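Handout, tutorial session.
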Amino acid sequence: MFKSLANLSHIYFKKFEYCGYSPNVRSCKPNTDGISSFENLLANIILRVFVWVVAFVICFGNVFVICLRSCIASDSRHHTMSIKSLCCADCLMGVYLFFIGAFDIKYCGEYNRHAQMWMESLSCQLIGSLAMLSTEVSVMLLTYMTLEKYVCIVFPFHNYRAGRKQTLSTLTVIWALGFMIAVIPFWDKQTFGNYYGRNGVCFPLHSDLTEKPGARSYSTGIFLVFSYTSMFFSVRKTSAKTARHTVFDQEVTIAKRFFFIVFTDALCWMPIFLLKILSLLQVEITGTVILWVVIFILPINSALNPILYTMTTTSFRERLKLCLQMKWQQLGMKDTPHSISMIYTHNSAP
């Protein structure tokens, strides 16, 4: 409709998202929805820089932990497998942010010309599903690890311990379920519509009146029912572990650390739950708030998990210290024959 209006230079809409339907118009108002602007995919200059910083921190932290866990032997290899799997899931969030930053640079200065094409593109759908896969697998892994530790600590003399096959099977099921959650919106366009292309950052966190009922119900089930239930279950179990009196100091330490980890994750998820509830109640939410949640609050778990799960543990720090000491000793042994020869020559002199 707007392509035929060659002389149209200014246009005014009720919402910024409609500006994408008139890419040839020189001036469109409103020129931002808080997420994207007429010029850029990310409207906020601070977040345009911050997206790269957060992505780097997430990827570097998780890859670093994976490498350390691979090099340093652990008493619980099955637990280490779960930690590595969690790091892989969290690392996907960093990859998602890298893509958002890259496309922001690609469309810099002329985003509105490509806005509609971008939100309907396969690239937007794929990186949106990547973020969904990361968040849901991370939550499920956290719940599984919490349940596993709960059984070990509450029933310390029980013979049950997850073996290699059982751990691999559980991790495979978790990843398969996360993959299904992420790709289901691709199956039926009539029900879900453009599920991941509702905004410039390709993440279906916010509901609006134009969203299809099937998509609204699905996102509500994922972010409120599934994720909230998992986090509530984890917090409840870790609370029980911390409150339980036991004579084993190591178990108490593990219980307190797990409670702190799960409680931190729950705090990070709380704004997401509130934002989803408010959007379902049709409360007007500015795009700036959504952008801060997607770029900053949502990835916090991915950045903190490798630190909380690995670098805060006493046993891991001791193994790392021991490994570094052995490396230094091996380096020092290279000079030992020469030093002994010099001492022997000096002592044999008349």
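The second record follows below. Compare its token runs with those of the first.
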Amino acid sequence: MARILAIDYGNKRVGIAVTDPIKIIASPLDTVHSKDVISFLTTYFSKEEVEAVVVGYPTNEEGEATDATRQVQAFINLFRKKFPNMPLHLQDESFSSQMALQSMIAAGSNRKQRNKKSGNIDKVSAAIILQQYLEEN
């Protein structure tokens, strides 16, 4: 069964999450450098059946574009060029990083495990974005 994959795109790191095969639960998958994300996705798509991709789309509290929106839009354009047949959905990512941090604290992660340099927050943020998408759709 095909999965849905989510991307939390950042200038340096990209968090990636996927659903289980029956598309009920979103789980963190990996964190990759932004320059390596297309290569990672090409490899992943060749090994796993993915029916759609969800990209976290940053907006401010008024729903307007932010500084990060331009970077994410550039990635979306590149993604559509590289994977023209892959359905792509946008999901509001407001507060996903803060929610990821709080969920990691609640799960008992120590400061080192939560450290942004490790990328744990990025892939947990991607899982939160994906879970929100699943719940809304």
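Points raised in discussion: The radius of gyration is 14 Å.
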